[in-house]
Amino acid sequence: MTATQGVAAAMYRVYNFSPGPAALPTAVLEKAQEELLNWRDSGMSVMEVSHRSPDFIALAAHAESTLRRLLQIPDNYRVLFLQGGATMQFAAVPLNLAGPDGKADYVLTGNWGTKASKEAARYLRVNIAASAEAANFTTIPDPATWSVTDDAAYLHYTPNETIYGVEFHDIPAVSDAPLVVDMSSTLLSRPIDVSRFGVIYAGAQKNIGPAGLTLVIVRDDLLDRARAETPSVVNYRVMADSDSMSNTPPTLAWYLASLVFDWLEEHGGLTVMAERNQRKSAKLYAAIDDSSFYANPVTPAHRSWMNIPFTLADPALDAIFLEESAAAGLTNLKGHRSVGGMRASIYNAMPQAGVDALVSFMTDFENRHG
Ligand SMILES: *Cc1c(COP(=O)(O)O)cnc(C)c1O
Question: Which of 77, 91, 304, 330 has the greatest number of beta carbons closer than 10 A?
């Protein structure tokens, strides 16, 4: 056992800054542990029961109604619990919303939006309405400068770019086309006005639950545009009509997401989460900005509440920073290879105490090495 593993084992739970799969609330895992062998007095695990059983159908209904309350989802939207990750939606969105001659606008503020546009280009004509690539994805191009297409089937953007740490804090109003958004790393971090969007999708493993589940929230009038060849399991109409059970759904992930929704509601819902997330990120950005040792390149108005990349003045210290932080119980801080340095992902499950511990560690590290 290495020293790091020894510390981690001794402290039971570390502060896990992973971008995804990411930390889940400890209370959720404890509840799942408590129910693991005997769910709802069935004498079985939730993993071992039929998705068609009354108990599981009740769980699915509970998960959806809790999520609807949390996000205040209007009645004219359907909520789908799918598989395939956000990446499957990169293809499902064009297949569901437009024919091969259709056009769609994409705004690129990082690598996820870029990947989404490339996948979509296999199915329809993609217009890049704006891109921040020339600025190394450190900002969001002013919506007034976006070149949107008149007859686009939709406009796609990524409200939070997980790798670059760039977040939209407002919804752009530049197009009459339905807005389609990849909210994988921001959904449930704050209240949103669902009625402004045509489709919202998110892989669960950042801020919702474990990997394996993908949420899609789709406006009614967009359910019937799918091409005939769209696979049934990602066809919004098919999945809406079958309550997301056209085939076997990811039952364990669905159950765990439901526990996360309950946890969010018990903690005051998304208004409380937004205050916490804003406060946590402000503390970390202040620590970075107040030092000449750490730096974050993102335009302040577009900095993410969820993913905070930062570099050290001397990259030769990166490995030591990672080793020492892990030994202090602060794990998974390594930045993405395309940005370098560090990245702290601080989703809902990261408590203020975890951010406080990281900031103390950073100050101490700077004092010793800066
Ligand atoms: C993680 C992430 C993805 C990829 O999600 P998968 O579920 O692995 O397909 C896509 N978009 C964003 C914004 C992400 O953060």
Answer: 304
Question: Do 240 and 362 have their domain in common?
Answer: no
Give the CATH number for residue 227. 3.40.640.10
What confidence score (pLDDT) does residue 12 get?
Answer: 85
Q: Between the CA of residue 354 and those of 160, 280, 293, 317, what are the distances in Å?
A: 21, 9, 21, 22
**90 pLDDT higher than 60:** yes
Q: Which amino acid appears at position 191 of this protein?
A: P
80 Cβ contact list (under 8 Å, min separation 6): 215, 216, 217, 218, 236, 239, 240, 244
**pLDDT tens, 306-328?**
999 999 999 999 999 999 999 99
My answer on whether 237 and 329 are in the same domain is no
Tell me how far apart the alpha carbons of residues 236 and 93 are, in angstroms, rounded to a whole number.
Answer: 9
39, 112, 263, 305: the catalytic one is: 112
Average pLDDT over residues 214-235: 98
Q: Please report which helix (H) or strand (E) contains residue 276, including its range.
A: helix 269-289
pTM over 0.90: yes
Atom of ligand 1 nearest to the CA of 211: 7
Q: Which domain holds residue 124?
A: 33-266
Half-sphere exposure of 156 (CA within 13 A, CB side): 31
CA of 218 to the centre of ligand 1 (A): 18
Atom 7 of ligand 1 has which residue's CA nearest to it? 85
The residue out of 234, 266, 298 marking a domain boundary is: 266
Domain count along the chain: 2
Q: Residue 198 phi/psi, 5° resolution?
A: -85, -50
Which amino acid type is present at position 303?
R
pLDDT at 331 over 80: yes
pLDDT in tens, 285-296: 999 999 999 999
Domain assignment present for 308: yes
